[in-house]
Design goal:
By secondary structure, this protein is α+β, with helices and mostly antiparallel strands. Helix content is 42%, strand content 26%. It has one domain: Glutaredoxin. It comes from Methanobacterium spitsbergense.
């Protein structure tokens, strides 16, 4: 079961590069378990509106915003494991 991670960013956000790097690091650890999409809210404003985002960075797992702000690696890994467990159930 692949977990889709969407990382919402903005070019002017000082914390967004850290969030993107974190997700890319996790993808290296779990290459077969996650799919990553980076979304610049200045380019895809519609997607940001769909999710009701008011701040970046934001991280969504399987279409649900789980973090606003850059999560810690352990927090993100735990959320991914929860998503994988839910899909198996």
């Amino acid at each position: 079961m692949v977990v889709k991670i969407e990382v919402f960013t903005s070019p002017s956000c000082p914390y967004c590069p850290m969030a993107v790097q974190l997700v890319e690091d996790v993808k290296k650890d779990m290459p077969n378990d996650i799919e990553v999409e980076k979304i610049d809210i200045m380019v895809d404003q519609e997607k940001a509106r769909e999710y009701g985002l008011m701040a970046v960075p934001a991280v969504a797992l399987n279409g649900v915003v789980r973090f606003v702000g850059a999560p810690g690696k352990e927090e993100l890994l735990e959320a991914i494991k929860e998503e994988m467990a839910e899909k198996k159930a």
